[in-house]
Structures are given as structure tokens and as C-alpha cells.
Amino acid sequence: MSPTFQAVLWMSGSVVSFTAMALAGRAISLELDTFEIMLYRSVIGFFIVIAALALTGQFQQVTRRRLGLHALRNLSHFTGQNLWFFAVASIPLAQVFALEFTSPLWVILISPLILGERITATRALSAIIGFLGILIVARPSPETLSPGLIAAAGCAVGFAGSAVFTRRLTRTETAGCVLFWLTAMQAVFGLICAGYDGDIALPGLHSWPLVAVIAVAGLVAHYCLTTALSLAPAPVVIPIDFARLPMVAILGMLIYAESLDPYVFLGAAIIFGANYLNILKETRPRPSVS
To answer: How many angstroms separate the CA atoms of 182 and 14, rounded?
Structure first.
């Protein structure tokens, strides 16, 4: 099994986890603001990561040698995630995910600067085709512009930066180390941002399961993402996340009665075509040099 195909499988776990987190995030958004959601998610995740590292005897994997890079990665992700939670509570889920999926375009642009990865013709073509599919799904216009749409578009930039920095970290750091600093740093970020006004809301008893889903799904998603990025370049891994779009569009229709039109499926088909083109090219055996 090729490393790229293994990365595809890991990203499938990330797709399911991020979708579950979106549903739980919308359900709890009336009770907690985005900073509070991030605070509780990160605190719960921090203790889960510590327990997992201790039980598996991998705590020695956590190092402080790349703290600056961890901070850049987590600041980028924290910003993107807060914008994402705001968008999830403000506009239709399919629209959030469609705009979020501009992230691979930013990854392709950022990767050569930070990772030294090459922009091949296939990667560029796949990104362009995928972006056209996103435009068909979202169909943004000045009349429809809203804070939720802006937040959804902005989160894509934050997630792209997070993905690229993660890829660089996985050159020297393990997934356990990345997750430890992810939860530790973002718990501090969340505490500062949620508590700046001196008022941090506590979830009700009925809401703690939703907070737990967000925390666990977030960790699983990031473990899958980090593992996938350690197996294949960022411009290859990130576009696989497009599979969330049809899934969340159907769930949004069934759970929240969000409208579903043929453009969603047309755009999704184009996006899947772009994904397939990229994956097919990356998994094709290279001729041996005699």
C-alpha cells in the first residue's frame, strides 16, 4: 500500500470527525461563544492526550525544541477554528464547508515558501478545478455577503497555515508531540480570549456531551490529519477533505432543513473529479531509472 493511499485512508477518518464536530458545534453555539467552545475543547483534549501518551509510554516524544513553530501552527489554527465555529452557527453548513475548502489553494501557495514543495502542473490544475466546483456550490455575490461568509472564507486561510506548519513539524516531531502542544497552547489561547471580559460561561449538564464530542472529534480529526500529512505532501492530503461537502449538505438538509439544490451536487462532482485527478497522479508508479 503506497504512502499516498494510506494518507487517503487517514483523511477519511478526519472527514467523519470534522463533520461530527460541526454538528455538535452548531448545537451548542446558542449556549457558548466560540472562545468558550475552544477553551473547553482544548482543556478536555489536553487531558486525553496526556492520558494517551502516558498509557502508551510515549510521553518522551513531547519536546520543546520547536516551540516557536508549534506556536505559529496553533495560533493559525486557533484563529481559523474560531472563525469556523462562528460560521457554522451563522450560515448553512454546506456553504461553510464549501468556502472552507478554498484552503487547498492557500496550501498550494504557501507550501513552496515554507516547505519547499514543488507546485506541479497536476496539483495546480486540481486546485483550480476544485475551486471552480466550490464557486458553483457557494455562488458568492455582494448581495449575499455576510459576517458568516467572511468568517468561513477566513477560516480557510487559518487552516491552510495550520496544515503547512503541521507538515513542517512532522519532519522532526511525532503526532503525539503535535497534539500535546495543540491542546496545551490552544487551552491557554482559549482561556485568555474567553476570560478577557471576566465572564466565562459554563455548559449546562445537557451540553457537556456535545462539548465532549467536539473535544474528542477534534483530537481524532487532528491525529488523522497529522498522520496523513506525515505520509504525503500537504497539497495532496488537504484536497481529500472535500468529501465532507456532500456529507454535510445531506446532514444539513435532514437535521436543519437547509435547502439542497442541484448546484451543490454539481459542484461536489467537480470537486471529487479534481480530487481523483490529483490522487491518481500522485499514486501512479514512477518509472524506474535503469
So the answer is: 16
257: CB partners within 8 A, 6+ apart? none
Helix (H, G, I), strand (E, B) or coil at 223: helix
Asked if residues 77 and 186 have their Cβ atoms less than 8 Å apart, the reply is yes
Grid look-up 467537480 returns: 270
Closest to 159 measured CA to CA, from 90, 221, 252, 217: 221
Q: Which residue has the cell 491518481?
A: 280
Dihedral sign, CA of 279, 225, 53, 71? Answer: positive
Q: E strands, the chain, where?
A: none
- Torsion angle, CA of 163/246/95/103, rounded to 10 degrees? 20
Q: CB neighbours of 278 closer than 8 A, spacing ≥ 6?
A: 122, 123, 126, 235, 236, 239
Tell me, what's the pLDDT at 189? 95
**Residue listed under C-alpha cell 531509472:** 289
- Are 207 and 91 in contact by the 8 Å Cβ rule? The answer is no
Sorting pLDDT into bands at 50, 70 and 90, what band is 289? very low
Interatomic CA distance for residues 236 and 119, integer angstroms? 11
Average pLDDT over every residue of 74-89: 94
Residue 287 confidence (pLDDT) above 90: no
Cα–Cα distance measured from residue 3 to residue 237, given in angstroms and rounded to the nearest whole number = 11
E strand or H helix at 168, and its extent? helix 147-169
Count other C-beta atoms under 10 Å from residue 256's C-beta. 12
Q: Degrees (nearest 5) of the Cα angle 109, 110, 113?
A: 110
- Helix %, strand %, coil % of the chain (to 5): 80, 0, 20
